[in-house]
Amino acid sequence: MIEWAPILEVLRHGTAGAFMLVGALFMLIGSSGVLRLPDFYTRIHAAGITDTLATVLLLAGMMIEAGFTQTSAKLALVGIFLFLTSPTATHAVANAAHKAGLKPRLGTVEPPHPRDVDLNEEKS
Amino acid sequence: MGYIASLTLMLVALWLTLSGYFHNQLLLSLGAFSVGITVVLALRMRILDDESAPYYRIPRLLVYSVWLMVEIVKANLIVAKTILRPDMVLTPRMVRIKTLPASGFGRALFANSITLTPGTVTVDLDSDEIIVHAILKEMTNKSDFAEMARRCAWAAGEKEVPA
After folding, report:
1. Residue ranges of B 100-139 with Cβ closer than 8 A to chain A
2. Edge-to-edge strands of the sheet including B120-125?
3. What DSSP line would sit under B75-104, residue for residue?
4. What residues form DSSP beta bridges with B97?
5. Are B122 and A91 in contact (CB under 8 A)?
């Protein structure tokens, strides 16, 4: 006779941990994008990764960890509000830049390879 | 009438979720009081309408948000792959989108959906077009935007669906 409860508990923590780990990974990818991308408009897209998929994965992990509780419901609310407000904020910033006359870099843009970047050189 | 009922229901659900009090009578009555005041104020300010309490749109919006989530995940993976390449090649574009949902609600939904999908951001919105900045030229397909506009129009409950 196998006791299933502890096994399921371990699986739950494992799944929650996996979700949060992948979410954190996407946060890192988004942040590296914000640093590496060449201009304002392209950087917004990298910030979009941390706004959407990374946040959803982190919230999902926390909800699995919290189980079927009030905390989970609150986390779901956080997710809903984030999905309603983050595009508005992104659009406000992008629209302000556009209205102020900031020109995007268009065409084909190739930012420097990491190995070619001189870390000692101070960028202004 | 439907607006009042749906707003009251939403506020009660929100209050119970955030507070978690089900048995303390004093707090429950204070919660009911604040819900009542909010509804009365919303009525007096005449902001209780189709835009603030669109309860009958919830089923279609849920169906739409499932599709949107799938699209968001796909776009996220593409952008993440682009950012992670050491020798990344970007092809940023500014495009005008002319096929829009007809109603204001549908347009707001469309513009927000575009911004929410990584790789495309709504930069400006006019009466007859949306200006979108995309990080890769693969993301500026007219047919993809038309598909999203069609689904937004459906979610907003429009009869005429843009081709």
Report:
1. 111-113, 115-124, 131, 133, 135
2. B93-97, B130-134, B120-125
3. HHHHHHHHHH-TT--B--EEEEE----SSH
4. B130
5. yes
Chain B residues closer than 8 Å to A114 by CB: 86
- Tokens describing residue A32: 């590296």
The pTM assigned to this predicted structure is 0.85
d(CA B118, CA A20): 20
Q: Tell whether the model's pLDDT for residue A124 goes beyond 50.
A: no
pLDDT 10s digits, A78-111? 999 998 899 999 999 999 999 998 888 888 888 8
What pLDDT, on a 0 to 100 scale, did the predictor assign at position A26? 93
pLDDT tens figures, A17-51: 999 999 999 999 999 999 888 889 889 988 888 88
CB contact under 8 A, B116 and A105: no
A10: Cβ contacts below 8 Å, ≥ 6 apart:
none
Q: Is the ipTM of this complex over 0.90?
A: no
- Locate the chain A residue with the closest alpha carbon to B90: A109
Q: Do B83 and A86 touch (CB under 8 A)?
A: no
Q: Do B17 and A83 touch (CB under 8 A)?
A: no
- Residue window 42-61, chain B: list those with CB within 8 Å of chain A: none
Distance CA B163, CA B149 (A): 9
Identify the closest residue of chain B to A89 by CA–CA distance: B115
Residue A90 with chain B: CB contacts under 8 Å: 115, 121
Q: Which residues contact B20 (CB under 8 A, 6 or more apart)?
A: A70
Mutate to test the interface with A, among B70, B83, B126 (most CBs of A within 10 A): B83
